[in-house]
Amino acid sequence: MFPKKNISKTTCNYCGLGCGVIIQKDNPGKITVTGDQDHPVNKGILCSKGVTLQSKVSDHSDRILYPEMRWNRNMPRQRVTWDTALNRAAAVFKTFISKYGPDSVGFYVSGQCLTEEYYLIDKLVKGFLGTNNIDSNTLICGESEFTANKLVFGMDSIPGSIEDLELADCFFITNANPFRSNPILFKRLERYKASNPEVKIIIADSRRTESCAIADIHLQLKPGTEIILFRAIGRFLIENNLIDKEFIEFRTEGFNEYKNKAMEKSLEEASAICDIPVIDIILAAEYIGKAKSFISMLPAGNNQNSTDLNKNLSLINLSLITGQIGKEGCGPFPLSDQPHIITGTEAGGLSDSLPGHRSIINQEHREEIAKYWGVPSISDKRGYTDTELFDNLLSGKLKAIWIINTNPLVSLPPARNIEVALKNSKFVIVQDISLKSETVPFADLILPAAGWLEKEGTITNPGRRISLAHKLTNAPGEAIPGISIISRFAEKMGFADPFKYENPSDIFLEYSRITKQTIFDVSNINFELLHQNRSMQWPFEPSGKSTKILYSDHIFNTASCKANFHSVAKGHLPYELNQNYPLLLTSGQTQDHWHSFSSTGKLVKVNLHTDKPLLEINKEDALNRGIKNGDVVEVFNEAGSVKVTAQYSLDIKKGVVFLPLQWGKVLIKDLDSISVPMHSQDDQMGVKTGFSVVQ
Ligand code: SF4
Fold first, then answer.
1. CATH classification of the domain holding 687
2. Which cofactor does it need (predicted)?
3. Whole-angstrom distance, CA of residue 235 vs CA of residue 558
4. How remote is the CA of residue 224 from the centroid of ligand 1, in Å?
């Protein structure tokens, strides 16, 4: 529980970085939030979302205050008691499970959940309901990054630390504009570069964004050609002996195959495909090859398109050939935005995972967890992934879905399918804090959840740093913490005893013990230690000391203990533009806003930066089509069309247009095709696009 004093330290949970904040509460209960100078992540600075954190707890204008339910879809929802709400939820879930089997129900959860919530839901679903149909929205933001790390290093955690930012002498940022999407990390990088001008920053992006102000070279490549660029850089490094031969020979596997792939195209061919000068590819390669320590950034912009995994694997290959792993200032580094992006595999919560980086398909893992939870067995069938949950809702296989702290109608592609799927479902439960979520109107049952500072638990950032989030104030209305909702529902389902906990620290204790002797062993920490240390970075030494760098002995978690090169077959996206669809559409983050607006949309300060979506278009492309600055244009592709105001830009590559992702439902998502997810920050997914001027 939060200390009984007026000033306390906790963690911002807007985005995944987990900045340290100081909360001051004056007598009338007014809350002030400032950055914590002593926190290793943000060192006192906060982004514009962070500085408005107090409105998260003081402005209840959009909060869900009590449970609401409708008895059928022709009736309006009405306020009900928690007992009525959870009795109904249990009755519906019991009916479907007994009639159609456990796989007829599913849970779609979120990085906004605390670790203890994640763990508890996972335990209920996989251990007691008998299905693995649970998945998280973190899959949208980071799955391909984590999968790439797992394939290469044998574990889906980043090898380095956020502290490495000030230790590298070369950075390679692709498909991201951290100035907007990761402002605190960008600020740190900007300061570091200012005092160390010899540090090299390479940015590859089809837009010249604000981040390019600190770049030594901007590779304004054609969207979808990143893998060709990474291979061309690899080829130059190999041909010019700028590689770490000893590391490659003794600590990796698959180099020859990678080398063959890298040699397939000459630098000139790569230059033509990527539409960037050869000299720029060489310069970028020299920066990387001559760097003593090199960091490649893995952004969400690499993660959300049809070749996302291949892009990340190709990028990590550059760290492998240069031996830039296992020491300070090295390795792939996440530029993720979603909180708790890694907790799916740490605490369970994904369709194929079990707590402690265990896997559903591993019999030994299932048996260990079943024994620990005191259940006969855990299903060996992988559950539905995020999009599969809604596909199966659409087909009728899945009857009921419980959506927790996420707004799939905006954030999960394709929007039209999600809407039809929700309408097609038999029962939808939405557990959330905000009535503004576009998913709420589709709910048969709404459950009010406690939010930031209204519940206690832990958060893990992408740098493996576990922090405590404190309870400072009571939730408004009848909102309660997620762990209470799940425990009470479990009781209604007939599983009271396994879900009886005194407080969140007991859940953490149970969860941490389950990780003992796994690759993710956090069994020697507890809330008390976290209170003392503010935050801790796993893995921990027996003394509890944090580990900053993984693989410093160059022993990896793969079967061979070596890191794996992956020479992906797919080189670039086969965009075939034509007269009808002559341009490539990319998407990205708007300054300061958070995903679907349900959190940041109500903040006046943040809204001042932008109040409507604009289509960025190269001025020459616009003039060629008779589009004037400020014209409303119709943007269309094979999947749909939207009307939006055009804005000339000299900073976007000719042939490419850009739409912000926050207006997802009305903009980007309506242009999305089923096979190509397109919700990201600076996502270079490149949908073929056409135009007509509306007014
Ligand atoms: Fe909060 Fe993220 Fe901003 Fe830090 S960068 S203050 S964690 S929103």
1. 2.40.40.20
2. FAD
3. 26
4. 29
- The mean-pLDDT minimum among 535-544, 596-605, 644-653 falls in 596-605
pLDDT digits (tens, 9 = 90+) for 309-339: 888 999 999 999 999 999 999 989 888 766 6
In whole angstroms, what is the distance from residue 554 CA to residue 323 CA? 10
Q: How many angstroms is it from 604 CA to the middle of ligand 1?
A: 17
Cα(479) to ligand 1 centroid in Å equals 24
Pocket test for ligand 1, best of 11, 13, 19 (most atoms within 8 A of CB): 19
Task: Say if the ipTM goes beyond 0.90.
Answer: yes
Atom of ligand 1 nearest to the CA of 11: 7
Beta carbons within 8 Å of 216's beta carbon, 6+ residues apart? 200, 201, 202, 287
Helix axes 504-513, 115-122, angle to 10 degrees: 70
Answer with the one of 316, 335, 354 that is the final residue of a domain: 335
Q: What is the DSSP string of 210-225?
A: GGGGG-SEEE-PPTT-
What SS3 state is found at 573?
coil
Task: Please identify, by atom number, the ligand 1 atom nearest to the C-alpha of residue 594.
Answer: 8
Ligand 1 atom nearest residue 21's Cα: 6
Within a domain: 570:
no
Q: Within this chain, do residues 482 and 433 fall inside the same structural domain, yes or no?
A: yes
The verdict on residue 552 lying in a domain is: no
Residues with CB under 6 A from ligand 1: 12, 14-15, 17-19, 42, 46-47, 49-50, 183-184
Does a structural domain hold residue 457?
no
Q: Distance between alpha carbon 133 and the CA centroid of its chain, in Å?
A: 20
Position in ligand 1 atom list of the atom nearest CA 53: 1
> pLDDT tens-digit profile of 586-632?
877 766 555 555 555 555 555 555 567 788 999 999 898 888 898 88
328 and 200 assigned to the same domain: yes
Phi first, then psi: what are they for 438, rounded to 5°? -65, -15
The residue-averaged pLDDT of 152-163 equals 87
Residue among 9, 10, 11, 12 whose CB has most ligand 1 atoms within 8 A, to mutate: 12
Residue 357: phi and psi, rounded to 5, are 55, 30
- Are residues 186 and 79 part of one domain? no
Which segments of 501-639 are extended strands (E)?
535-537, 563-564, 583-588, 614-618, 632-637
Ligand 1 midpoint to CA 460 (Å): 13
User: pTM (2 decimals)?
Assistant: 0.87
> For residues 691 and 621, is the Cβ–Cβ distance under 8 A?
no
Answer yes or no: do 378 and 412 share one domain: yes
For residue 6, the CA-to-ligand 1 centroid distance in Å is 22
pLDDT per residue as tens digits for the range 78-128: 999 999 999 999 999 999 999 999 999 999 999 889 999 999 999 999 999
Say how far apart CA 588 and CA 678 lie, in whole Å. 9
Q: Whose CA is nearest to atom 2 of ligand 1?
A: 15
CA of 206 to the centre of ligand 1 (A): 26
Question: Which one-letter DSSP state was computed for residue 51?
Answer: G
Q: How many angstroms does the Cα of residue 84 sit away from the middle of ligand 1?
A: 38
Looking at the structure, tell me whether residues 483 and 597 fall in a common domain.
no
Q: Ligand 1: distance of its center to the CA of 19 in Å?
A: 6
> Is it the case that residue 679 has pLDDT exceeding 90?
no
Domain assignment of residue 470, yes or no: no
Is 294 found in the same domain as 247? yes
CA of 432 relative to ligand 1 center, distance in Å:
21
Residue nearest to atom 5 of ligand 1 (CA): 184
